[in-house]
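Section 3.1: Structural characterization of target chains.
Under the original work plan, the team committed to producing a structural model for every single-chain target entering the pipeline before any wet-lab resources were allocated. The record below documents one such target. The sequence was received from the expression subgroup and is listed exactly as submitted; it comprises 392 residues.
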Amino acid sequence: MKAGDFNPDAGPDFFNARIKLNGIELVGNIEIHVKTSDWLKHGHQRNTAYNNLILHVVYEHDVSLPQNTDNHVEVLELKYLIDKNTLENYDQLVTAKGKLPCTSQLIRVNDFKFTSWMQRMTVERLEGKVKYLERAFVESKGDYAQTFYQALLKSFGFKVNALPFELIAVHLPFKILLRHADNCMQLEALLLGVSGLLENQFNDKYLQHLQNEFEFLKAKYNLIPLKSEIFKFSKLRPANFPNLRLAQLATLINHEKTFITRPQDFCDYHTLMKVLKITPQGYWKNHYGMEGRLQQKDMALGNTSAENIIINTFAPFYFFYSKKTGMSHFSEIAINLLATCSFESNSKTKLFETKMPLLKNSADSQAIIHLHDNYCSKKRCLKCAIAAAILK
């Protein structure tokens, strides 16, 4: 037998269903209501779209309809088939006011079922990020390098400056940067110049030199700088300042020229961490601001920041690349990278503290973030295997 095809639009809830009744197979549509009388409230009796109904599924059969006898439409009442405890558990889930509806019941969920659902959530999380890459791929007219470059810049902006950094990738195509990959100073001039962060008056001679260099490159490539006001510095630690992140990116491109043109060659966790943690040279070796003040601190990306880029750029890109090329081993690489990165502790993952012994790496934390954002916060408990286990 077949439940049919779910219909999200007007008309019966399921099309082309097959059911067997008293040895006779019926083919047609299925409608679902809480009460049989809802059929009348919704005016279905006047809608010919419901003429081919074979089954009316209701929780409570409270009224007999002409269709039941005239058109031989069967009614399936669920009221006496569902345990009251199941309904009470469901009511607790959907009416819970906490950030996690099943907080008090989560510990009852079998560990195997929980980890199995987490694995599915990890894949769903990656598939969601692939949608962004698909759009970027279309916008770049099928250019893998430009697609990866745009995703990488978005990650380098981290959460606070993700959009401004993404705009840099749009205004400064990677092919232009590639022409200057041997000259780190020119890379800095291009990235900082297009960002609009070189528009101020500077006393430092190196920053003045960057300004002069960008004026030449801007005219050569007809570049249009962004407004520097779109970048956020407030409440950021100096190590996360946009100008320093762009300088780090310039050093990265200068040291590893194929890093963006051939990201699929850098799919090992330790290789990626080594490359991402390159320390900027020259002015940025001991400056994180653009005021010329010296700072005796390590200007390289920290472990957490480097892993953040792996989680949000490399793993999704490999997953995307696998789907586009049919090379399935890149999907495995994406999952393995997440399984190697550290578990992310944040307000969302802390909600699942009763299952913390099962949560070991970023594949798990990414799964929880996806679960929280797409199921828990939207009260989609009936679509969640964890809630299903609780209801049973």
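Residues 140-340 form one domain.
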